[in-house]
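Two quick folds needed for the group meeting slides. Do the first one here.
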Amino acid sequence: MEILFYRYNSICEPDILQTFRNFGITVHTEELEMHNKQTSPRECAEKVSAWILQKPLAFVFSINFFPAVSYTCEKLKVPYVCWSVDSPVAELFSNALKNSYNRVFLFDRAQYEFFAPINPSCIHYLPLCTNVKRWEQIILGMTEDDYLTYGGDVSFVGSLYYEKCRYDSLLQAQTSSSGLPVSGVGKISDRTRGFVDGLMEAQLKVFGCNFIQKCLPEDVIREIADADPGFYRGADTYGDTDRYLVAHQYIGFKLAAVERERTLNRLSEHFDVTLYTRSDTSRLPKVRCKGGAGTLTEMPKIFQASKINLNITMRPIETGLSLRIWDILGCGGFLLTNYQSEIPSYFEIGRDLETYESAEELEAKVHYYLTHDEERVEIAINGYEKVAKYHTYEIRLAQMIKVLTDNG
């Protein structure tokens, strides 16, 4: 079997590429978008067409959905298989999602339930996983110095989302014709800002249920969308992209920034908290900030050496388990994560990992597990064993191929 892997440099790609090859599949790679992020749909289509016309491909594969690839495969009657690992993904609103040669796999069940009615026979649910063997190679080689360097009571690895938050730019003062700021005047009204602030405060108190998208009035959506000249408006869409993007890409990213800042600051008042990030950390005065960590080299050592690994899922991932959850467990780390409604489908809370549903519960569980070493270590081992047995790339891609085989 031969396939084409259309790459754009997702951190998942090397593991998936190697797993396909371990299955005996001949994998050709198209790396155009790894080197040129401004690749046009036409350039993409031309590259994919050339591969299809010269190779007997069983299917074309990508991480996340590329409409140009989908249209090309539809025209040339070759299955297009993609696996979504992010949320939100605006491209899922393209009319290309309706193509009959699509085989789209979505990791978040809420995301799946939202998009599946558009093309029921061609859209499937598939959770994420991890590469336990890769992590084992690093962890088994860790030294005492590694444990001293990367160990800590509470560790968090991830973005603070300040630099990714487009909503913040809408709060900044506008400029006059002379280029000077107009004092107190932002790009959105005080009324809209107040509404969004209140909505975020309400959402921050609720775990396991995301209601922002349903609660947005049309006038608030219009104002936020119109205020950003760079707002995504695809010419080839079928649904209400504005509501979805305002809820997830604007308010959702802002919510992630607020939640992570508040959570880390609160914990750092009482515990030793270490943060690994490339974001601005000036608002976290008591957090031990160490800069970014190498995903394939340092991150597994942090997960293994830390007493508690904190996960704070960004709210646009509504029900699903982010890649960070799988990776922490796959490294044998103890995981304390916000509750997501899909967690009980794969793990036993209190046995394989721990969850929290309020800031108060988070603080209490951090204190408890820092003072109950044996219980904490046992949970970490259980989580690792569960992932190693049921949630590796070999298992997940075998599940994917079974769906492809069963559905033709």
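Then this one, please, same format:
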Amino acid sequence: MGINMKKKLRVFWGIMAMLGVCMVMYTAVCEKLPKKAGYAAALYVPVQAAARLADTVGLRTAGKREFEVEEQIMQIVYQLARRSIVKVVVKDAAGSGVVWNIEGGIVIASNRHLLMKDVTAEIVFGNGETAFADVIGYSKQYDIGFVRIPESAVTGSVLRDIYEVVPILYETSSEEARMAFASLFAGQRIMQVGAVTSQKTCNLSVGDVIGLKYMPLFQTDVLETACFSRAGMSGGGVFDAQGHFLGMISGGEVAEDAELREAQITYSIPPALIASEYAEIIRRER
């Protein structure tokens, strides 16, 4: 399939996602409007379907019938975000990855600590299909690595099921940049999506942005979120309520008395670092 067709498909699925958000918001608004004589608000999202979707993605429902606008939007965000997340399997380890680029094949961004275990990775897509990808490079400083699936190995069904992440390239290099980020994002609702090591479905959690924090382990400022993550979600993505990609999960803090290895605070690599490292790898390839 040619590059032009891929671009058209990306635009198509992006439009479909936005239509979904608009539909949900319209439904929520109509449900709140008074029903005057001669007018009726049609519920375009069946309550039963919304309930099933909420149960599937693990979101809390607001009452027996109606759903809060925020939660309806997050349901749509999940349906978009899950298309950007894959499972990455290397030897005896597995984690997650995000669909970073689909020009001339599919480039997956993941954690360096996972990809350094091998030079070939098996990628498992949300529709159950698999493909093998070669490592094309690692960051020398950060926990970032990339693999590429050759264009010849990309099937039409995979291409229809995936969606390239749309990152927000916020700056982290100065105190002014960190303060600007905090003023825009601190406290905002986010969703974290990653692969499940033993299943085909995605793991997800909903939480809030704390801010940016310098972590010596990562040698940079990372996105800090009050949102749990568990084994297998490393390499997955953090998405805001509009579906934008805010970071790649790379670690977190686990309570000392926790029975399960689930982090309550998660640290993620900012998209600007991923973009700069990918540009450097492509430059070296040329």
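Slide caption for protein two: The helical segments are 3-32, 47-57, 69-81, 112-115, 156-161, 175-185, 271-285.
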